[in-house]
Amino acid sequence: MQLSDLDTPTIMADLSVLEMNIRSMAEHCQKIGIPLRSHTKTHKIPEIARMQIAAGAIGICCQKLGEAEVMVAGGLNNILIPYNIVGTSKLERLTALSRRANITVSLDSEAVAKGISEQAVKEDTDVNVIIELDTNHFRCGVQTPDAAERLAKIVTRLKRLQLQGFMFYPSEERARKFVEATVAKMQKNSVPLNIVSGGGTGREAESKSLGCTETRSGSYAFEGLKRTGAKTLPGADSCVIRIISTVVSTPTPDRIIIDAGWKTFTSHVRDPRVPMGVLAEYPEARVYDLSMEHGHVDVRKCKHAFRVGERVSVIPMHQEMSLNLHDELIGYKRDRVEVIWKVQGRGKVR
């Protein structure tokens, strides 16, 4: 099948770029000397996760329990779930998963720890846990090294919990002081530090400098080592995702309409200075607005005269959020379709 055979809109992955990005991050982490744990929330596809492991990643990271279940079913084993697991149904699934694979889960409170412990005792199984620190990311996590120490003492007394260490998201000087103090307190109390997990694509060297035993990086698979800033798009040479669209209207010389809107690709920021996407063939053309099923493209800076029926390739501003809207991802090289992957983790928000 050729790309020209595909109907639109269709989401695609340039396999040559994907392979390059996976290889480059593995080499980057090997060079600076920190093990890589690949975050699968970027793609939610077991086949891509296996490519990351084959390239050298020590394991994967899944943001939700449902994603982890998909990955275990797909043959992945070493999995970190950096999320508080709360509620009977989820705890039952967590202990069931822990019997099938090497699962570690984060927590940041006595309430979460007790819930996991009680279910683990009931199911007669052990669960690996780590403590999350809030190093100025203002999300989950204990707020001080003293709080981390107190929670570690509680966790080590709870039955069937195996405390492995802690995790955090690097954030400049606060992270360094927080982490150093936490390590000192853990060592004083003989708390295992098998895992000190840092994270964030582009923060691998920072995690290494903070003494981490691993780095959680995910968006690199689609964006390479270039990070998407608030007002920029990564370079087209490192972007994996393309959305083939058809021009359905050319209402004015300055504007065209394509058959892909909010329900095809999306963005995590709506700012008039930030395009929702760019046309790969014509980088001067920017998707400046979206309707439910229409993409509004500013073509004022293009010399090309667009016509109805013409096909264009859009690089979405947020590639992984766009993929989460689709059931399948088409993998291609040059103009040939090589593989069709089911986005198995799509919708796994529980």
The level-1 CATH class of the largest domain: Alpha Beta
- Looking at this structure, what is the CATH superfamily of the largest domain? Alanine racemase
Strand order of the largest sheet: 2-3-4-5-6-7-8-9
How many β-strand stretches?
A: 17
Assign the CATH architecture of the largest domain: Alpha-Beta Barrel
The run of helices and strands is EHEHEHEHEHEHEHEHEHEEEEEEHEE
Form type:
elongated
Runs with pLDDT <50, length 5+?
227-233
User: What is the helix tally?
Assistant: 10
Describe what this molecule looks like in 3D.
With 350 residues, the protein is of the alpha/beta class. The chain folds into two domains: 3-10 and 233-342, Lyase, Ornithine Decarboxylase, Chain A, domain 1 (Beta Barrel); 34-217, Alanine racemase (TIM Barrel, Alpha-Beta Barrel). 31% of the residues lie in helices and 26% in strands. It is built from ten helices and 17 strands. It has helices spanning 15-32, 46-55, 65-73, 88-100, 110-123, 145-157, 172-188, 204-209, 220-223, 319-323, and strands spanning 10-14, 36-39, 59-61, 78-81, 102-107, 127-132, 161-167, 195-199, 214-217, 241-252, 255-258, 277-279, 286-290, 295-298, 311-316, 328-333, 336-342. Helix 3 packs parallel to helix 4 (88-100), helix 4 packs across helix 5 and helix 6 (145-157) packs parallel to helix 7 (172-188).
